[in-house]
Design brief:
The structure is a single chain. Helices cover 34% and strands 25% of the residues. It has one domain: Spore Coat Polysaccharide Biosynthesis Protein SpsA, Chain A (Alpha-Beta Complex), CATH 3.90.550.10. Helix 2 (43-47) links the parallel strand 2 (30-36) and strand 3. Strands 1, 2, 3, 4, 5, 6, 7, 8 and 9 form a nine-stranded mixed sheet that branches. The chain is an alpha/beta fold. The protein is built from eight helices and nine strands.
């Protein structure tokens, strides 16, 4: 079995395509957990058409790390894939690709490629194409990791959960912590998702400032 944790917030435009692609995977023994943050559109109506466990998290309780921790806690498998409700697996080998990166027992997590859609902004297309290459790699010190398209071992997460206080990039903070314990993370480009808004949200200065602040904080803790 593989568990899939999907975070949602007003994803009616994408969630049907996301879940259809998840349930069309060649790997069929799935446990799908939706962690919804007070969606006010048709997201939950669409989710109800699929065989998912639904967890709701309020705006008051929400942080990126806490929403993931709640979803992973409910997951039934030791291998937990993570994505967002606006990401769409690009083919039926997405989960197989993420799982293939765990050949080395020291791998704590894998992450995959992210590709733009035709109507993704030019800024986000550029950033996705330059960030996510075509060659696999294993990272023992580089703590880049991305939870729009990743898979982790629940056994390791139970010892090192996601930070529930930081405002974003909980994925990189987690990768830094597991690497400090002697684990590694792996990049597997064959496991690909389409990500409409990319990883930098175009030229959103407020979001960029928040992310940069947290990355700087993580880097200072690493030195």
């Amino acid at each position: 079995m593989i568990s899939v944790v999907i975070r949602t917030k007003n994803e009616e435009r994408w969630i049907g395509r996301c879940l259809s692609a998840v349930f069309a995977q060649s790997y069929k023994n799935l446990d799908v957990v939706i962690v919804d943050n007070e969606s006010s559109d048709r997201t939950l109506d669409i989710v109800s058409d699929f065989d998912c466990t639904l967890i709701t998290i309020s705006d008051k309780d929400f942080t990126f790390g806490r929403s993931l921790n709640w979803g992973i806690y409910a997951a039934k498998s030791d291998f937990v894939a993570i994505t967002s409700g606006h990401c769409i697996p690009s083919d039926d080998q997405w989960l197989v690709g993420l799982l293939s990166g765990f050949g080395d027992p020291k791998i704590a997590g894998t992450y995959g490629r992210q590709e733009p859609l035709p109507d993704t902004s030019s800024y986000d297309k550029r950033d996705l194409w330059t960030t996510f290459g075509t060659e696999p790699k294993v990272q023992a010190q580089d703590f880049f990791f991305h939870n729009a398209n990743s898979m982790i071992k629940k056994e390791i997460w139970s010892q090192i959960p996601f930070d529930e206080e930081i405002s974003g990039v909980e994925d990189r903070d987690w990768a830094r912590k597991v690497q400090a314990k002697g684990y590694k993370v792996a990049y597997e480009p064959s496991a690909s998702v389409f990500h409409w808004h990319g990883i930098h949200h175009g030229r959103n200065e407020e979001r960029s400032a928040r992310v940069a602040k947290v990355i700087e904080w993580i880097g200072n803790r690493s030195t």
